[in-house]
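Propose amino acids for all 161 sites.
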């Protein structure tokens, strides 16, 4: 299945060459305020729908590419794990030359378990450091405050645009 992305217009946007949204109607020069508001509302609705459709189409293409990449990554991980297993068997067999077979495999197993423990502790330490998205929560609170009182300018924080 091929997903068709909306083609950009010659001016690079989703507006036609006259600067109107496809499907919109220009109001008459003598239109009333109510007609102008209705036209603006319809145009805004068309604009939002167009942007949502564009986002859906782009996400569909991106999702397919990501799925293909994930499948290739999974295959690489599988073959890497099998190769790692054979490498560990080779190390154990090499130790078998100087030690009894059971001791060689015990050493390899102990090293693997030690490595797993160290990596697990590292992962646990990093996971404990994860917190809530503070900047996003602050900007959402600012947006809600602005919606309640549009005359107040949202607070500016360092690092935000």
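Proposal:
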């Amino acid at each position: 299945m091929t997903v068709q992305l909306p083609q950009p217009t010659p001016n690079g946007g989703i507006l036609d060459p006259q600067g109107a949204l496809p499907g919109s109607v220009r109001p008459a020069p003598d239109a009333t305020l109510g007609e102008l508001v209705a036209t603006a509302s319809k145009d805004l609705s068309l604009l939002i729908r167009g942007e949502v459709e564009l986002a859906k189409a782009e996400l569909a293409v991106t999702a397919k590419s990501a799925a293909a990449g994930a499948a290739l990554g999974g295959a690489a991980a599988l073959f890497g794990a099998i190769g790692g297993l054979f490498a560990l068997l080779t190390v154990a067999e090499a130790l078998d030359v100087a030690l009894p077979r059971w001791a060689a495999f015990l050493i390899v197993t102990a090293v693997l378990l030690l490595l797993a423990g160290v990596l697990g502790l590292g992962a646990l330490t990093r996971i404990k450091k994860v917190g809530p998205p503070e900047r996003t929560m602050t900007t959402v609170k600012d947006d809600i405050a602005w919606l309640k009182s549009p005359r107040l300018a949202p607070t500016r924080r360092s690092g935000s645009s």
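The mean pLDDT is 81. Residues 51 and 117 are 48 Å apart (CA to CA).
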